[in-house]
Specification:
CATH topology of the largest domain: Cytochrome Bc1 Complex, Chain C
Radius of gyration: 24 Å
Strand order of the largest sheet: 1-2
CATH architecture of the largest domain: Up-down Bundle
Shape: globular
Oligomer: single chain
Bound molecules: protoporphyrin IX containing FE
Largest sheet: 2 strands, antiparallel
Distance between the termini: 60 Å
Number of strands: 2
CATH class of the largest domain: Mainly Alpha
Amino acid sequence: MAHFTKATSLHDWLNQRLAVDTLRRVLAKEYWIPKDINFLWAMGMVLAITFGLLLVSGIFLLMYYQPNVNLAFDSVNYTIMKEVEFGWLWRHIHGVAASVVFLIIYIHMFTGIYYGSYKKGRELIWISGMLLFVTFSAEAFSGYMLPWGQMSYWAGMVITNLFSLGDLHMNGLVEWIRGDYVPGQAFLNRFFMLHVLLLPLVIMALIGLHFGTLRIPHVNNQEGEEIDFEEEAAKYKAGKKAESKVIAFANDFLAKDMFVVSVFLIFFFYLVFYHYDFAMDPVNFDPADPLKTPAHIYPEWYFLWSYEILRPFSTNVGLVAFGFAQVIFFLLPFLDKSPNAKPAHKRGLFKVWFWVMLVDMIILTAMGKLPPEGIFSTIGLYAALTFIGLWIILPIITKMEKEV
Ligand code: HEM
């Protein structure tokens, strides 16, 4: 049993029971951040704040949403949007945040790829990040089912159909996932549970894991320089802040983070008030109708690149290509064979690989939105093949880089 002295203040009282000073030291005052980083390193904080916005707005929506196939559509489009005071605001915040969070996730991922932040002891940061990406995708998909509009219903139908695994005809698995032959009440109930309970819990646990994996290797820096954090921290603590290569997370770096977060929030609320419609598909403003298939079914913009990898091929090949696209990013730390942790512009062929991959994914996204006809389907096919080819050549070009 620890020795308790009479507490002289609330801080002292808490400190004796919660070790608040130690926590503050480990997580903030002596959590060292390299000086040589740019605004892209604030994207993690922007993501954490956006997730907070999703949680708070989601809790308000949950007070009026009805997870019932006969009531869900009206509870969203009538009760929340028209009857509940400021219900529209919470819905716009939730809808815009759900879309924007993926834009920031992609920027955050490509920053990591550009600067090689998945290397040299940082593999678990990358893998926990990818687990977050997959869980966020499941969270977005399950949320999309809830308004029970035309796109909710038919996207739910198409995506769950993928689990029949083409010629393997695993229809039993599809029915097990749906809880019925077609999406219905059981389907809506389970996606509701996933969206408001299980997946948010998993996301929070994964954010904790992601932060934990960052603590020992520390964040990377713009030059991929290996920093001796103890030595640099000693300089900082000795008052030689100008000479040290590091700053403290709080309040030095936090002040910069908050500047970027503020700029982001201005952009975010501009979208919420003036352009919320970009995050909402007009087809989903029609209630679900199992007898009327929409002319063109496509997912939200952030899933389009992987959807376009599935589409140009026959069912079986398409499913394999789609499965490949879902898992291959996990393997990045192991497929990049170069020990060189420099940024892409100092890495020869990898620089070309990076930009071709980025442009290719943008092309896939654009083609995924267009009907799969004529020139669009040809471009889509070549872009999908390029995506697969880029991953196959990655170990080869990065191995050559080592030999240079
Ligand atoms: C919503 C989920 C996420 C949150 C809240 C989050 C949060 C953070 C934070 C706060 C940092 C440290 C500061 C920074 O570099 O931005 C970070 C770093 C990092 N994250 Fe994430 N992240 C998320 C998703 C992802 C995803 C999807 C990936 C990619 C697979 C990823 C990969 C990384 C990497 C590689 C770093 C290290 C950057 C470096 O060392 O320079 N994260 N994340």
